[in-house]
C-alpha cells in the first residue's frame, strides 16, 4: 500500500531497529568487526595491514587476552599477527587457525559500490575481502572473543595466524615458518582460506569440500636471444619466432595424469551429483584413474583439469626494442600449477627439455611445493559435526585446490593443513579478486556459528587425548 512520504520516514527507524534486533550479541559484534576490517585498504602499497593489525590487537586486549599472547611481527610495509588462546595442555600440541589480512587491489571507479565499505544489500555483504578473506579474519577473531567471554578453556592452545601478503609474495608466512616457528608450531592447521560448501542456483546445499591438498604456484620466464640487426635485413633466426615456437610446444604438451586419495574421493562425490558426460567421467576416473578417456574429458574442462595434472600456461609476453630492428631478445612468462608431491625443479626440467637448449628457462621469484595432508579422522569428524550444525546432512568430501594459499608453507614445514571455511555459496556468487565481491549474509552468520562448533569440538574436553 502507498504511504505518504512523511509516514514512510516515520516508520523507517522502527524498521531499522527491528532488523538490528534480529542479531544476537555475538553476531552484532562480528558484524561490527567485519565492517571495520573491510574499511582497511589492505592492498599492496597502501601500508594499511599494520593499521588493521592495531585494530585487531585492541579487540583482543579488550577481550582479556594478555599482551604476552598477542604477537605483531612487522615485515616491510605489511605485518603478520599471532594470537594465542591458552589451553590446559591435556589435548596435546596446539592447533593453528589461518587467515590473511591483505586483499587484491580494487579500483573504486569500476565498482557499483564502495569496495572499502561493508554494504548489506539484497541478502549479500558487498566489499573487497568479503569472500577473500576478511570474513575468515572476522570469524576467528569474533569466536576467540566469544569463547573468552564464555570462559571456555581449550584442551590445547589455539593459535590464530594472520598473514599480511598472501595475495602477493607470501613473505610473512615464510618468515613465520622460518624465523618464528615457536609462535606457530602446531599439530595441524585449519585454514579459513580454502574449502567450503557449494549451493545450487536455487540455494540448496550440494556438497562440502574439505581441502587437504593444494597445487604449488611457480612462474618461469622463457627467453630467447639473438644478435639482432636492421629489420630490412631479416635473418633466418629470430628471437620472437623462436619464442613463439617454444610457446607452441608448451601449449601442445600435457603433463602426466596424476591422482591421490583426495582427488579420487572428490571425483567420486562430485560425480554422484554432476550430470552428463562430465559426471560420467568423474565417476569413471574415481573408479579407475588409468582410464584415459575419462582423464581426457576432465582435461577438457577448465574447472577440472587442474585436479588431474600439473598445468602450465602462458600469461605474459614481451620482446624486441624497436619496430625497425630485429629483436635481440623475447621473453614469455608461463605460470605453472604443480600437482602436490611434484618438485618445482622437476617441472622446470620438463619445460626446459620441451623447449630445447636455445631457450632459457628461469624460475621467477620463489616457489614452494608440498604434499597432500593426510585425512585425519578427528579433523573429519569435527568438520562434519560443524557443517551439519548449519547444513544438516550435507556430504563432506576431501578436495584438492588448483590455486594456492598460505597453507602451502605449513604443509611444506610438516604441519598438516586443512581448508575448512564454513561459507556456503553459489558458483555464480563467487567474485573473489573481481568486481563487486560479495558473500550471502546468511552464510556469514552461519560461518560464525560453524567455527564456534568446530573450535569447541577440536579443542573441547571430549577431544582430549
UniProtKB/TrEMBL annotation:
Keyword entries, A-Z: Hydrolase, Metal-binding, Protease, Signal, Zinc
UniProt domain Peptidase M20 dimerisation: residue ranges: 213-357
Secretion signal span: 1-20
NCBIfam families: PRK09133.1 (NF006596)
Protein family: Belongs to the peptidase M20A family.
Protein name in UniProt: M20/M25/M40 family metallo-hydrolase
Species this chain originates from: Dyella halodurans
Amino acid at each position: 500500500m502507498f504511504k505518504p512520504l512523511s509516514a514512510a520516514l516515520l516508520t523507517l527507524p522502527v524498521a531499522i531497529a527491528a532488523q538490528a534486533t534480529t542479531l544476537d550479541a555475538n553476531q552484532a559484534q562480528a558484524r561490527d568487526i567485519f565492517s571495520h576490517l573491510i574499511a582497511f585498504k589492505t592492498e599492496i602499497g597502501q601500508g594499511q595491514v599494520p593499521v588493521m593489525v592495531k585494530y585487531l590487537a585492541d579487540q583482543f586486549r579488550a577481550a582479556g587476552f594478555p599482551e604476552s599472547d598477542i604477537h605483531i611481527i612487522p615485515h616491510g610495509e605489511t605485518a603478520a599477527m599471532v594470537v594465542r588462546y591458552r589451553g590446559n595442555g591435556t589435548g596435546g600440541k596446539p592447533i593453528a587457525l589461518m587467515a590473511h589480512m591483505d586483499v587484491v587491489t580494487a579500483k573504486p571507479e569500476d565498482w557499483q559500490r564502495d569496495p572499502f565499505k561493508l554494504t548489506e544489500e539484497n541478502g549479500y555483504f558487498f566489499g573487497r575481502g568479503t569472500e577473500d578473506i576478511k570474513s575468515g579474519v572476522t570469524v576467528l577473531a569474533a569466536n576467540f572473543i566469544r569463547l573468552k567471554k564464555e570462559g571456555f578453556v581449550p584442551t590445547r592452545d589455539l593459535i590464530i595466524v594472520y598473514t599480511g601478503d598472501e595475495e602477493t609474495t607470501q613473505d610473512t608466512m615464510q618468515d613465520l615458518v622460518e624465523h618464528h616457528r615457536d609462535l606457530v608450531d602446531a599439530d595441524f592447521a585449519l585454514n579459513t582460506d580454502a574449502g567450503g560448501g557449494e549451493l545450487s542456483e536455487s540455494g540448496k546445499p550440494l556438497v562440502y569440500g574439505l581441502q587437504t591438498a593444494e597445487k604449488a604456484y611457480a612462474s618461469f620466464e622463457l627467453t630467447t636471444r639473438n644478435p639482432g640487426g636492421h629489420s630490412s635485413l631479416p635473418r633466418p633466426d629470430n628471437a620472437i619466432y623462436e619464442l613463439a615456437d617454444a610457446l607452441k610446444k608448451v601449449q601442445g604438451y600435457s603433463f602426466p595424469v596424476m591422482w591421490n586419495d583426495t582427488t579420487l574421493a572428490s571425483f567420486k562425490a562430485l560425480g554422484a551429483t554432476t550430470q552428463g558426460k562430465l559426471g560420467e567421467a568423474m565417476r569413471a576416473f574415481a573408479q579407475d584413474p588409468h582410464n584415459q578417456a575419462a582423464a581426457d574429458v576432465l582435461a577438457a574442462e577448465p574447472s577440472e583439469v587442474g585436479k588431474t595434472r600439473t598445468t602450465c600456461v602462458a600469461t605474459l609476453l614481451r620482446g624486441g626494442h624497436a619496430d625497425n630492428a630485429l629483436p635481440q631478445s623475447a621473453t614469455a612468462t608461463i605460470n605453472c600449477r604443480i600437482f602436490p608431491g611434484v618438485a618445482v625443479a622437476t617441472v622446470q626440467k620438463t619445460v626446459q627439455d620441451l623447449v630445447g637448449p636455445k631457450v632459457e628457462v628461469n624460475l621467477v621469484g620463489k616457489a614452494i611445493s608440498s604434499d597432500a595432508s593426510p585425512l585425519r579422522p578427528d579433523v573429519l569428524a569435527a568438520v562434519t559435526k560443524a557443517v551439519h550444525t548449519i547444513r544438516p546432512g550435507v556430504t563432506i568430501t576431501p578436495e584438492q585446490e588448483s590455486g594456492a594459499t598460505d597453507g602451502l608453507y605449513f604443509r611444506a614445514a610438516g604441519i598438516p593443513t586443512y581448508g575448512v571455511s564454513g561459507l556456503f555459496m553459489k558458483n555464480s556468487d563467487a567474485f573473489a579478486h573481481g568486481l563487486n565481491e560479495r558473500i550471502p549474509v546468511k552464510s556469514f552468520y552461519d560461518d560464525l556459528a560453524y567455527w564456534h562448533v568446530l573450535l569447541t569440538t577440536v579443542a573441547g574436553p571430549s577431544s582430549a587425548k
